[in-house]
Write a structure and sequence with these properties.
By secondary structure, the protein is α+β, with helices and mostly antiparallel strands. The chain contains 15 helices and eleven strands. The chain has one domain: Cytochrome P450 (Cytochrome p450, Orthogonal Bundle). About 50% of the residues lie in helices and about 10% in strands. Helix 8 crosses helix 9 and helix 9 packs across helix 11.
């Protein structure tokens, strides 16, 4: 069985996709370093891992989110690391906030924030778009949803970036940065929960403290774990979708014209960005028993990876997978938001933020140009998107 190093420092994005293609051509699963995990590079295998909690448990997150150098981490005890039946009532408690009614209430606010940020960015002309738009939009929305003090928003990017380094930190400086952020977030979010218990408001934290399913409420520790998960995820997913969308627009200027002619093209464009450049590249699971997948025997207790970024380019499912083709057949069948019981709670919110964000930006420009030919990607492998995005926006 071939072993691949996904974190090799010299591995470019093009190298990574070539590596995925090679992995998909191997019989059965592969092994990957530095985890020593079994990796599913083909769509069928990755989907099988993600949808079957009986054989492939999400408790792997608890293992990977609490490495020896870190210690206790609330994310490790969130519902993302639970399987049914423990997962089911917790999911039911928090799903309400992300349902159609909740999203409908948010749409006007997302549209307003998008319009304001897009207007300010286009006025600047040359602008670093992560700090001006792609990060600030979801940050402001998730901050408002949780009822957080805007004066604290300036810390969120550092928190989000360092939490995204959990599975790929390799140096003592990176270890300490993550440890520091976990301490800061724990103190901050514990204080938020305590404040809402004393004085509930019209926000998601207050709603979750009051919510019940079959007479059961969230404990403070359960809510803390959920907020540890939600705050970075609520920013990172949309930030990377928007950032990757802007990079794609620079590479495919004809897509801008299609959007300007018909904004109904924007959702199709977003789905193809999600397929080609998923914001989350992989998902961890743990084999709960000795299993066999595509002829590979996986011992119980082994870490298993669903390689989402590879599965989304599987030639067996998507025709011409290396081509950017919005509206393609099976275009929404990508695994970028997961599959099965752990399908991303915030998928509808991320899609709405990306759609309204692009509508606001596209309507104000006649073109855009990257200020540097080299893209500076986020460190690590798990989260995929530009760390900075200097662009010139040509006003319409």
């Amino acid at each position: 069985m071939q072993t691949y190093d996904l974190f090799a420092p010299a591995l470019t994005l093009a190298d990574r996709y070539a590596l995925f293609a090679q992995m998909r051509s191997e019989p059965g699963l592969c092994r990957v370093e530095p985890f020593g995990a079994y990796a599913a590079a083909r769509y069928e295998d990755a989907a099988a891992i993600l949808k079957d909690p009986r054989r492939f448990s999400s408790e792997a997150l608890a293992v990977t989110a609490e490495p020896a150098w870190l210690g206790p981490n609330p994310v490790a005890h969130s519902m993302l690391s639970m399987d049914p039946p423990r997962h089911t009532p917790l999911r039911a408690l928090v799903t309400r906030a992300f349902g159609p009614t909740g999203m409908a209430r948010l749409e006007a606010q997302v549209r307003q924030v998008s319009e304001e940020l897009a207007e300010a960015a286009v006025r600047q002309g040359e602008v670093e778009l992560v700090d001006a738009f792609t990060f600030v939009l979801p940050r402001n929305i998730i901050g408002a949803m949780l009822g957080l003090d805007p004066s604290t928003f300036s810390e969120f990017k550092r928190w989000s970036t360092n939490m995204g380094m959990l599975t790929s930190a390799t140096t003592e400086a990176q270890y300490e940065a993550v440890r520091s952020v976990v301490r800061e977030m724990r103190d901050y979010l514990t204080e938020v929960i305590q404040a809402r218990r004393r004085r509930p408001g019209e926000d998601m934290v207050s709603d979750l403290l009051q919510a019940e399913v079959e007479g059961q409420k969230l404990t403070d520790e359960q809510l803390l774990s959920f907020l540890f998960l939600l705050l970075p995820a609520g920013m990172e997913t949309t930030t990377q979708v928007l950032g990757n969308a802007v990079l794609t627009l620079a590479q495919h200027p004809e897509q801008l014209e299609l959007m300007k002619a018909d904004k109904a093209h924007i959702p199709r464009f977003i789905e193809e960005v999600l397929r080609c450049e998923p914001p989350t590249q992989l998902s961890f699971r743990m084999a709960m028993q000795d299993v066999e997948l595509s002829g590979t025997k996986v011992p119980a207790g082994s870490l298993v990876l669903g390689l989402v970024a590879s599965a989304n380019r599987d030639e067996r499912v998507f025709e011409q997978p290396e081509c950017f083709l919005p509206g393609r057949d099976k275009g929404t069948q990508h695994l970028s938001f997961g599959y099965g019981v752990h399908f991303c709670l915030g998928a509808q919110l991320a899609r709405m933020e990306a759609r309204l964000g692009l509508e606001a930006l596209v309507s104000r420009i006649r073109g855009l140009r990257l200020c540097s030919p080299e893209v500076q990607w986020l460190p690590g492998f798990s989260i995929h998107g530009p760390a900075v995005l200097p662009v010139e926006l040509l006003p319409a």
